[in-house]
Amino acid sequence: MNLPNLKEARKRTKQEVEHVYLKESYDKIKQGSKYYLKTYGCQMNVHDSEEIAQRLESLGYEKTDTLEHADVVILNTCAVRENAHDKVFGFLGRCKHLKKEKPNLIVGLCGCMAQEESVVNEIKTKHPYIDIVFGTHNIHELQNLIINYNNKQEIDVYSIEGKVYENIAYKRDSKIKAWVNIMYGCDKFCTYCIVPYTRGKQRSRKSTDILNEIKSLVELGYQEVTLLGQNVNAYGKDLDQEISFATLLEKVAQSNIPRIRFVTSHPWDFTDEMIDTIAKYDNIMPYIHLPLQSGSTRILKLMGRRYSQEDYLKLFNKIKSSIKNVAITTDIIVGFPNETDEDFQKTLEVVNTCQFDGAFTFIYSPRIGTPAALIKDNISLEEKEKRLQKLNKVVNEYSLKNNQKYLNQTLKVLLEAPSPKNPQKLFGYTENMKLVNVTADSSLIGKIVNVKITDAKSFSLDGEVV
Ligand code: 5AD
Ligand code: SF4
Q1: Is 170 part of a structural domain of the chain?
Q2: Do both 415 and 432 map to the same domain?
Q3: Is the pLDDT higher at 376 or at 1?
Q4: One domain for residues 374 and 240
Q5: What is the pLDDT of residue 6?
Q6: Confidence class for position 320, pLDDT limits 50, 70, 90
């Protein structure tokens, strides 16, 4: 059977490198050379960075968390909002400075910003210290770019999405939870969103490849997989042999992995079949991230979201009433062009009705190349910030209220690692994705344990193992 064993895949990448490149060019990477990898943006980027890390390590680089120790710096970037751009160029300033002291330092930029023509032009004309640039469709070129780097800026970005690559080796950040891509790109073209341009059209992986990857993760002892896609509900629509996301989910649920999650769900493609499947299997976690974006039907139309306020509420209620103990979080944008105070009130109305477990809230940021960027951005920043503040206040109140429901209850928590804020405690997540800081022995890391909740805050719970 054609099982892509992860260890095998890792070995294969190394062999490919040794085979394809001349030994002498491979040797120019000195023993003990280090890489510093910084990731911005969504889970897709986090997972891409696991591939980048593996590729760098296959060349002999070792990871460092100290920029000053690095021989290669790679910034894996996000283009969803303008402030991400500013942060990246802010950080690149530090790299430029460091390069003065370490002229052999290789500075690389990849990810969604690398797919933006305006950014590439900016790099070419204003940032000569950026040595290599590669895009979201050609991460596999990384070793090539480094080995062949010849003190000349190299920009290698595929403008057209490539095929779906299989048997990719990853240096996974966790031995407990794993990301699994089920598709790449997005066909939804929401009018404000740059993702379909930076990540390309939707390309689903074959279900057999996904299931084989999950099987090998189960063999390695992983407790949780998160199926990744920009719009997982549309999974399979582009395959020759069409298969629904619900069918894929059902197959994954039968694979003995203790916990299955998935992000992100677009309300438009959310079927009853999906709801039934999630409700049916105990190992599909009752947690759904369901971006609302706006509560105003008029603005939703301008955003090209294909649902109305009513549709969203109907779906929300169906999910809540069908899936036991489900938690629902959302994304909301304020200040989309022409959003009136009345439109914004409609967003608050939906938030008050749904009482989300959490929400990521954003100020609209025009992205060059998207249809919305052509509409005059006619709301002042002051007004947008006012709306965001108002929204955040309500959102946080509901997060706290939802968390308080769990006081004194016993919940199943998958313990992951010492809590970064309090290393005496471990942190983990409940089935419905509540972050819990737990007083527990480190021998319980990687285990699903019963935890009694002793305190509830807006963004986390505290508890004790029982
Ligand atoms: N401006 C502000 N927020 C945006 N998002 C996507 N594009 C933009 C933009 N141009 C938000 C959406 C999406 C989340 C990942 O980022 O809410 O769901
Ligand atoms: Fe962007 Fe819309 Fe696709 Fe989400 S569904 S990635 S918001 S275009």
Answers
A1: no
A2: yes
A3: 376
A4: yes
A5: 44
A6: very high
Tell me, yes or no, whether 148 and 262 share the same domain: no
Q: What is the CATH number of the domain that holds 418?
A: 2.40.50.140
Token pair of 59 as six digits: 């060349």
Quick one: which atom of ligand 2 is closest to the CA of 187?
3
Q: Whose alpha carbon is nearest atom 2 of ligand 2? A: 190
The structural domain count of the chain equals 3
Q: How far is the CA of 279 from the centre of ligand 1 (A)?
A: 29
In a domain, 37, yes or no: yes
Rounded to an integer, what distance in angstroms lies between the CA atom of residue 92 and that of residue 76? Answer: 12
- Note the pLDDT of residue 18: 47
Closest by Cα among 133, 141, 90, 139 to 113: 133
Q: How big is the chain by its Cα radius of gyration, in Å?
A: 23
Residues belonging to the chain: 466
The verdict on the CB of residue 265 being under 6 Å from ligand 2 is no
Distance 82 CA to ligand 2 centre (A): 16
| Distance, CA of 194 to CA of 213 (rounded, Å) | 29
163 pLDDT band, cuts 50/70/90, is confident
Inter-residue contact 152 to 124 (CB < 8 Å): no
- Which CATH number fits the domain that encloses residue 120? 3.40.50.12160
Q: Provide the total of helices (H) and of strands (E) in the chain, helices listed first.
A: 14, 19
Nearest-ligand number for the alpha carbon of 335: 1
Q: How far apart are CA 337 and CA 366, in angstroms?
A: 9
Question: What are the tokens at 110?
Answer: 């990849």
Task: State whether 211 and 197 are in the same domain.
Answer: yes
> Which residues span the domain enclosing 231?
177-404
CB atoms within 10 A of CB 117: 12
If one residue of 299, 336, 362 were mutated to test the ligand 1 pocket, choosing by the most ligand atoms within 8 A of its CB, it would be 362
Q: Is there a contact between 338 and 302 (Cβ–Cβ < 8 Å)?
A: yes
Model pTM score: 0.93
> By C-alpha distance, which of 425, 441, 442 is closest to 461?
425
